[in-house]
Amino acid sequence: MSDQTRRRFFLGAASAVSAMRVMGANERVNVAIVGLGGRGSAHLGIYSKLSEARVVGLCDVNQAARERSQATLVKNTSEKAKEFEDMREVFADKNVEAVSIATPNHWHALAAIWAMKAGKDVYGEKPACYNIYEGQKLIQVMNETKRMMQVGSQHRSTPFKMKAMEAIHGGLIGKVYSSKGLCYKRRPSIGHKEDAPTPAGVNWDMFLGPAPMRAFNELRFKYNWHWFWDTGNGDIGNQGVHELGIARWAMGDPAWPKNAYAHGGKFVYTDDQETPNTLTANFDFGGRELLFEVRGLLTNAEGSPGRRVGAPGNPAPSDSATAPKGGQPLNVMVGNLIYGTEGWAAMSDQGFQAFKGESNEMIMEERPQRMAGGDATGLHMQNFLSVVKSRKYEDLHDGLKNAVLSASMCHIANISYRVGRKVILADGPKFVGDNDANKMLTRDYRKPYTV
Ligand SMILES: NC(=O)c1ccc[n+]([C@@H]2O[C@H](COP(=O)([O-])OP(=O)(O)OC[C@H]3O[C@@H](n4cnc5c(N)ncnc54)[C@H](O)[C@@H]3O)[C@@H](O)[C@H]2O)c1
Predict the structure, then answer these.
(1) Nearest protein Cα to ligand 1, atom 5
(2) pLDDT for 327 beyond 90
(3) Are 258 and 396 in contact, with CB atoms under 8 Å apart?
(4) Looking at the predicted structure, is the pLDDT value of residue 67 above 50?
(5) Second label for 17, Cα 20 to 30 Å away, from 98, 147, 209, 387?
């Protein structure tokens, strides 16, 4: 995009905001999906089946992804969408009312900021932002443009988790003093790959966007970009941000911690991955704490005893991946443990169990309902689409302002890990007396991919 085109794009955007129409309750929202890899394909599968949405735009820097998605859309709806390589053209398209962003992390905030400036509402994948600066900038732009933005933390729309959190907030286990998130997700080594010519049909410059220019490398392309600092945030900013968000939720969504310390490393493997596969992070919230652990290597599960394992009629489950039946132990690998003054609780996608006092008597148990698509992403998107129409930000299950705090916790942990010491926060998104840490609040954006 030339400077002149860019100026026209933003001028058009300003008038689009003021001309935004009020939508009828039964109207479909015209959605464009930006980023059509694994997660974008899931977005497409869900939106193309929701009566509240119509998919009108498909954008990816990879031609093969665009073509695959178009074929899926035609199969699901018998309709075609406009294809785009450059997301700025999506945002300039008046037919598009909302965008759903499923690019790699380093594009999340930039894409959402451009989209909101062009008058679009945004459903943006987690983490809300790639760094702490972007999160603050996103909130500023959302406030200025009066757009709605929900982040893809579908745990906030999962009925049994919502019920469990309501009970915790109501004092089920007393006052929560320690809230722990677990990301025990075994990851294989990514190995090593040499740089190679960019495959035909891929716009590598636009894939890298704000990240420094470098030669194409397959390991930095599909999914494994998570493990390189230029584009990803390691597993704490990947799977982990869900459980970090839930750990905050259990504490009543506090704002910034007072200080944090994270340590770990990339243990065992010798490969190209830059981010740690083992990380322990502690956040001090003054009189209570949040703990987080990433274990990418072999580990046991933690969890709840349920009824005593091995008691008559209650053998240990033979397959921990299968949702246990009522009263059976809940093995938590990816999930949460929450400790209160009067009891404790465990939660994962398999369920929720709470126990009282020293007796470990089970006082509440919830199990997930079967849902189309396997999780609550459809419900989370429906919540977003209803708010696109109502314009009531407070009805969003995980509006941007809260999701930015969850994402920022990942970034604080990564910064502490990378500077190798405890970091102290200045009652907000800034570190006290630590220039190295403060430099990591943002990045050098490669032009023209700037916020
Ligand atoms: N909410 C969830 O449960 C959940 C689950 C999986 C992934 N995610 C999130 O979704 C995002 C995507 O993850 P993924 O697994 O699909 O990764 P992926 O690598 O499979 O897909 C990313 C896609 O984005 C495209 N892309 C890159 N730069 C682009 C640009 N500038 N414009 C348009 N397209 C661009 C790539 O070509 C690719 O097709 C991640 O941020 C991840 O954290 C969320």
Answers:
(1) 39
(2) no
(3) no
(4) yes
(5) 209
Q: How far is the CA of 441 from the centre of ligand 1 (A)?
A: 23
**C-alpha 39 – ligand 1 centre gap (Å):** 6
87 Cβ contact partners less than 8 Å away, ≥ 6 residues apart: 34, 59, 111, 114, 115
pLDDT reading at 214 higher than 70: yes
Distance CA 223, CA 39 (A): 10
Does ligand 1 have an atom closer than 6 angstroms to the CB of 124? no
Q: Which of ligand 1's atoms lies nearest the C-alpha of 375?
A: 3
Task: Give the pLDDT score at 359.
Answer: 77
The CATH architecture one would assign to domain 159-366 is: 2-Layer Sandwich (3.30)
Question: Ligand 1 center to residue 302 CA distance, Å?
Answer: 30
Indicate if the pLDDT at residue 397 is higher than 90: yes
Å from CA of 104 to ligand 1 middle: 4
Nearest residue to 431 via CA among 261, 241, 271 = 261
Question: Distance between CA 27 and CA 304 in Å, rounded?
Answer: 46
Multiple choice CATH, 3-156+374-399, 3.40.50.720, 3.40.190.10, 2.40.260.10, 2.40.110.10: 3.40.50.720
34 CA from centroid of ligand 1 (Å): 9
Distance 106 CA to ligand 1 centre (A): 10
Residue 299: pLDDT band (50, 70, 90) is: very high
Q: Which atom of ligand 1 is nearest to the CA of 207?
A: 28
Q: Decide: 87 in ligand 1 pocket, CB within 6 A.
A: yes
Q: Whose CA is nearest to atom 8 of ligand 1?
A: 39
Give helix 38-47 / helix 377-390 axis angle, nearest 10°: 60
- Looking at per-residue confidence, does 4 or 257 come out higher? 257
Half-sphere exposure of 288 (CA within 13 A, CB side): 21
Q: Which atom of ligand 1 is nearest to the CA of 38?
A: 16
The predicted pLDDT at position 314 comes to: 45
Q: Dihedral, CA atoms, 257, 261, 266, 267, nearest 10 degrees? A: -130
Mean pLDDT, range 363-388, rounded to an integer: 91
Question: What's the order of all strands across the beta sheet hosting 343-348?
Answer: 361-366, 351-356, 343-348, 334-340, 176-183, 289-295, 278-284, 259-265, 423-424
The C-alpha atoms of residue 136 and residue 268 are separated, in whole angstroms, by 36
Cβ–ligand 1 contact at 34 (below 6 Å): yes
Q: Establish whether residue 206 lines the binding site of ligand 1, counting it when its CB lies within 6 angstroms of any ligand atom.
A: yes
**Whether the CB of 69 sits within 6 Å of ligand 1:** no
Domain locations in the chain as residue ranges: 3-156+374-399, 159-366
Atom of ligand 1 nearest to the CA of 87: 32
3-state secondary structure of 319: coil
